């Protein structure tokens, strides 16, 4: 499994150029200032934004190509995303969020029990997101992502809104589960220490401002 991006995204006075290729089992860390295009990069991988020019490949399969017009919809890309703040469905319990779209078969599987216990969610399964702390919500969001059948895992500032203790606990969990994850992880963070600790390959977004703001992903 791998991820290759050689593409450009343009919107009014902002543009971002991405040229990166990472192999399976690799954690790609992307840093940079707020508003520089980090989340835009994730959105292109996820299929929430089409690239303006160039292409994106997942496992050597084209999911976005401006020349041919090929564009694979998000639900068919095999991409799991953990958004800032978690992104849990507020009307569902923790167990409902973990099994959303997959139901009883997933809940009856050994992997479900393994991940629920690893992320310390056993006593929280009946609670709804508004009954959880920030750290608990993020643990549930990460567990849901690891339960998803995915080729690429996207993490958008996964520890930004957490207190120090919760942040350190979530980092330890991510570090442990990255080792077992067979796909490619893309971690966006403004925290350089988080990228240093968790990423195998580190890139940053360099921004040039003028009449047009230009952002480029470059290797640290």
Characterise this structure.
By secondary structure, this protein is of the alpha/beta class. It has 2 domains: 147 residues, P-loop containing nucleotide triphosphate hydrolases (Rossmann fold, 3-Layer(aba) Sandwich), CATH 3.40.50.300; 56 residues. The protein starts with a strand and ends with a strand. The model has no long low-confidence stretch (mean pLDDT 87).
Topology, element by element:
Elements: E1 2-11, E2 14-23, E3 27-31, H1 38-46, E4 53-58, E5 61-65, E6 79-82, H2 94-98, H3 103-107, H4 110-118, H5 134-147, E7 152-156, H6 164-180, E8 184-188, H7 192-198, E9 201-208, E10 213-219
Parallel strand pairs: 2-10, 3-8, 3-9, 6-7, 7-8
Antiparallel strand pairs: 1-2, 1-4, 4-5, 9-10
Briefly, what is this?
The chain is an alpha/beta fold and 220 residues long. The protein has helices at residues 38-46, 94-98, 103-107, 110-118, 134-147, 164-180, 192-198, and strands at residues 2-11, 14-23, 27-31, 53-58, 61-65, 79-82, 152-156, 184-188, 201-208, 213-219.
Portion of residues in helices? 25-40%
Structural class: alpha/beta
Rg computed from alpha carbons, rounded to a whole number of angstroms: 17 Å
SSE order, as H and E?
Answer: EEEHEEEHHHHEHEHEE
Major β-sheet strand ordering: 5-4-1-2-10-9-3-8-7-6
Low-confidence stretches: none
Distance between the termini: 23 Å
CATH fold topology of the largest domain: Rossmann fold
Number of helices: 7
| CATH superfamily grouping of the largest domain | P-loop containing nucleotide triphosphate hydrolases
The number of domains is: 2
Multimer state: single chain
CATH class of the largest domain: Alpha Beta
Rounded mean pLDDT is 87
Describe the global form. Answer: globular
For the sheet with most strands, the description reads: 10 strands, mixed
